[in-house]
User: Which sequence fits this backbone?
């Protein structure tokens, strides 16, 4: 063939070549934030060699060699895989919006070991609830969230509609609540003010069940709930939202944050209010008091260089409860803190922090307009934490705290005050001798000045991985130091009796054993855990004939044991399911100072389906919780423990349906129907749900930044 | 930078050891005045403030003499010679008077109406009042026989069906027809002191009406 003939043939075939080759292009972004995903893998299923990655704008281009129909598949670490069909002869522009996949996500958690560690590698079973989980189910506070997600947790009313927690047999003072690792000052009837824990700026919540005093000291007997704030990662972010529910239940909030790389700031404001709610039947409570809250939080970070990070924060919280026609209860909290984190070298880092938290209660008399403080708990905490990594073999964590704890209370003689200093030091070694085995050991020493308490808390945990199965076993010591209230109370209970403190109280202690098996395959995760706690010297009040009043005292030992089961699945099509169940057995003996009212069987369920398109996305979630009845023998008299009466508190089941819709670039609409099957208690016991039946709620929020930021896909 | 950080932390801690923003709160006077704390001779009105916390005592009020006195019924202390009505906690009795609950909600409305002698007036009846709460935990209360005016005692409803009890002020003006035929108007406005301690009663009055 001559050269002329050859080029002539090429010219004839050129159009055929053009017809046979197609260019498919598109973008890949996060379904929730709409941020581009850089480096996402794009491949054509039918042509193994055809693959590429997305550029910094999340764009990709693939040249198909023929006109045949095919599938373009996109994957990205931590996200579900998505595939799109490309019809024969077509060259569409494809838009992929990937959703995070928790079951595959290498989630980093900090609570169980006080060092960042992948969830799958933590030797203690840790449950993580991420922001998108509670946004999709329209949950506004920590109480509702924990009850919806975790079985074995029950928030009930105690005297005067104060909220009490029962977490698998442990009360509010035996479960440690932390916000970004910091304790909360103040308590009412042994529980912190849970209404302080709004979810406005929360990134995730980590829950570790079981004793953790070797790392966290007092109160960490039944578990640790660590509420971790959202990090300001985006260049800037702004959101405003409001939600209305039955009984004029309003919640309005706003968030603004920015991050310049070296400097970041996050500001959050929230206001809530609710009318009084009249219950439908008789009970231990008749009308839930009207209330309103206001909170504002500011957090700033500055990194002068790549190794040092300085963080400052401040917060104010206010709650008013309309408990009487002539006077209201007011609660305020002022918090602040400074923290310095320094990476000494690639294997070591040190942290030094100071935290301040002041929780006040006051009575606001409507007629006189006077707002008189009756309670103030002020805590100053200095903390240091040092981590050193020995390659992949181990991490040494050493730290210590010093706390000044001041308490002024109407429950002390003449409204007086008491002061206590506490100090502690701890060390933990997280050892991975071989890839399959992880051993964690820790020990902590705590000192309490007023209680003259010296306590040592050890811990040992093992994790062994066998393919898709992980086995975990742990022993941990738990303890709770007597509080200033329990040591020095002198309170006249409405001229009925006195309640006296006891400076000679012993600390509550517990031995906690956990054994867990976890199976994780693809979209499926199943966890089964058995737990056993032997609790000694639990602190309670007992009638004293000699003093003609109630006195704080230590109880006889008791045991709490049970089973915790969790199964979850998450498919790429957008369907998610979770089923959790807890059996708890609290073994108390006849004549003990308390009788058990812990519900033996509790379960939670969640089924969710969501899908996102270019200008519209939705997520519908059905969540439910079921609590069994509990029968207990209650003492008929506080002064005489010889007579009991059998009381049965009925079980119940409540379901909730939520629909979250994302319209356009940043408009979010929430529609919720709670208590779907209209459950109304025949009698409102303090541990009955405070519901009047089916309620509805509507919410609207706008991500303002999504309308202006150029780095977000339209 | 780090030195500044440390100094800031220290300064913050030192200046706020026992708390900050105490100026947000009001202080209660150590001893609030009791008795006829406001008297307006021009329109015969005033305000009475009494400490009725003691379960064993009656607090006697003489509108004519503008005097307050107490007596311990358990110790069988004698009543004062002159009194018009008396309070024990939230119970009310009268000195041979009779009471009527009006529909008026303010003293100004009563003043505008002027002299009031309408509807039925209810005299005291025999009853009993609680004098000992300390035995409640043993399942009973200590009582003492005493006359009580059931209409006047309606000024505060105490629903003990829930814990704590629900307190509801009637908010209504009561007219008292005294033994000598004169009339008084009473409006009970509070049952707590400035620190929200229960058992302190504030009463607005017009006498003679």
Assistant:
């Amino acid at each position: 063939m001559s050269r002329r003939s050859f080029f002539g043939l090429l010219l004839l075939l050129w159009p055929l070549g053009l017809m046979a080759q197609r260019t498919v292009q598109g973008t890949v972004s996060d379904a929730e934030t709409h941020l581009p995903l850089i480096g996402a893998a794009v491949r054509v299923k039918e042509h193994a060699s055809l693959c590429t990655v997305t550029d910094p704008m999340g764009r990709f281009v693939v040249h198909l060699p023929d006109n045949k129909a095919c599938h373009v598949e996109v994957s990205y670490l931590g996200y579900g895989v998505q595939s799109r069909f490309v019809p024969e002869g077509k060259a569409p522009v494809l838009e992929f919006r990937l959703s995070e996949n928790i079951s595959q996500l290498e989630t980093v958690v900090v609570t169980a070991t006080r060092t960042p560690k992948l969830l799958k590698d933590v030797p203690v079973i840790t449950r993580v609830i991420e922001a998108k989980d509670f946004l999709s189910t329209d949950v506004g506070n920590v109480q509702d969230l924990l009850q919806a997600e975790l079985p074995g947790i029950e928030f009930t009313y105690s005297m005067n509609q104060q909220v009490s927690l029962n977490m698998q047999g442990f009360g509010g003072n035996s479960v440690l609540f932390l916000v970004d690792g910091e304790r909360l000052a103040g308590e009412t009837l042994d529980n912190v003010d849970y209404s302080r824990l709004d979810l406005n700026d929360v990134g995730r919540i980590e829950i570790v069940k079981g004793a953790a005093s070797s790392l966290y000291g007092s109160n960490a007997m039944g578990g640790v709930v660590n509420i971790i704030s959202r990090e300001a990662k985006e260049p800037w972010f702004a959101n405003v939202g409001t939600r209305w529910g039955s009984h004029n239940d309003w919640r309005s909030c706003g968030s603004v944050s920015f991050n310049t790389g070296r400097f970041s700031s996050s500001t959050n404001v929230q206001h809530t209010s609710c009318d009084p709610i009249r219950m439908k039947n008789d009970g231990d409570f008749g009308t839930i008091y009207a209330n309103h809250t206001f909170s504002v939080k500011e957090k700033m970070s500055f990194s002068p260089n790549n190794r040092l990070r300085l963080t400052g924060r401040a917060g104010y919280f206010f709650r008013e409860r309309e408990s009487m026609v002539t006077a209201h209860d007011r609660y305020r909290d002022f918090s602040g803190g400074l923290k310095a984190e320094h990476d000494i070298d690639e294997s070591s880092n040190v942290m030094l922090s100071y935290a301040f938290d002041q929780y006040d209660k006051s009575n606001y008399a409507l007629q006189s307009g006077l707002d008189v403080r009756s309670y103030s708990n002020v805590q100053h905490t200095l903390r240091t934490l040092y981590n050193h990594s020995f390659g992949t073999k181990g991490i040494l964590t050493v730290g210590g705290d010093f706390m000044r704890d001041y308490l002024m209370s109407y429950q002390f003689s003449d409204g007086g005050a008491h002061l206590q200093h506490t100090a502690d030091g701890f060390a933990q070694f997280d050892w991975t001798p071989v890839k399959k085995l992880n051993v964690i050991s820790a020990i902590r020493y705590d000192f309490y000045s007023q209680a003259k308490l010296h306590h040592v808390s050890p811990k040992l945990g093992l994790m062994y991985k066998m393919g898709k199965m992980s086995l975990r076993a742990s022993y941990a010591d738990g303890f709770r130091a007597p509080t200033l209230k329990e040591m020095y109370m002198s309170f006249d209970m409405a001229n009925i009796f006195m309640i006296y403190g006891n400076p000679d109280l012993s600390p509550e202690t517990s031995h906690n054993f956990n054994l867990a098996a976890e199976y994780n395959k693809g979209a499926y995760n199943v966890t089964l855990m058995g737990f056993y706690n032997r609790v000694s010297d639990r602190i309670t009040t007992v009638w004293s004939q000699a003093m003609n009043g109630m006195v704080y005292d230590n109880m006889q030992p008791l045991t709490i044991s049970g089973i915790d089961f969790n199964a979850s699945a998450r498919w790429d099509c957008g369907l998610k399911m979770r089923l959790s169940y807890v059996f708890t057995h609290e073994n108390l003996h006849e004549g003990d100072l308390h009788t058990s009212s812990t519900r033996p069987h509790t379960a939670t369920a969640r089924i969710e389906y969501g899908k996102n398109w270019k200008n519209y996305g939705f997520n519908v979630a059905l969540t439910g919780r079921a609590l069994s009845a509990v029968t207990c023998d209650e003492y008929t008299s506080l002064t005489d423990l010889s007579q009991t009466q059998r009381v049965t508190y009925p079980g119940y089941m409540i379901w909730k349906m939520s629909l979250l819709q994302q319209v356009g670039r940043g408009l979010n609409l929430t529609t919720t129907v709670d208590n779907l099957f209209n459950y109304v208690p025949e009698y409102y016991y303090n541990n009955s749900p405070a519901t009047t039946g089916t309620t509805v709620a509507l919410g609207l929020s706008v991500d303002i930044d999504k309308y202006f930021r150029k780095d977000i896909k339209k | 930078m780090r030195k500044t950080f440390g100094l800031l932390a220290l300064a913050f801690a030192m200046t706020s050891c026992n708390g900050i923003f105490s100026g947000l709160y009001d202080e209660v006077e150590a001893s609030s005045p009791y008795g006829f704390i406001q008297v307006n001779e021009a329109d015969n009105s005033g305000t009475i403030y009494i400490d009725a916390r003691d379960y064993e005592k009656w607090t006697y009020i003489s509108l004519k003499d503008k005097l307050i006195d107490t007596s311990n019924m358990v110790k069988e202390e004698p009543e004062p010679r002159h009194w018009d009505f008396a309070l024990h906690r939230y119970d009310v009795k009268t000195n041979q008077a009779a009471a009527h609950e009006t529909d008026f909600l303010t003293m100004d409305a009563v003043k505008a109406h002027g002299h009031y002698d309408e509807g039925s007036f209810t005299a005291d009846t025999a009853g009993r009042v609680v004098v000992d709460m300390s035995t409640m935990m043993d399942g009973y209360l200590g009582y003492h026989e005493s006359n009580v005016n059931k209409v006047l005692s309606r000024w505060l409803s105490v629903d003990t069906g829930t814990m704590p009890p629900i307190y509801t002020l009637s908010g209504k003006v009561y007219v008292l027809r005294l033994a000598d035929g004169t009339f008084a108007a009473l409006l009970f406005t509070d049952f707590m002191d400035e620190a929200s301690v229960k058992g302190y009663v504030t009463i607005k009055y017009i006498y003679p009406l």
About this structure: Confidence is low (pLDDT under 50) at residues 6-19 of chain A. The longest helix of chain A spans residues 3-20.
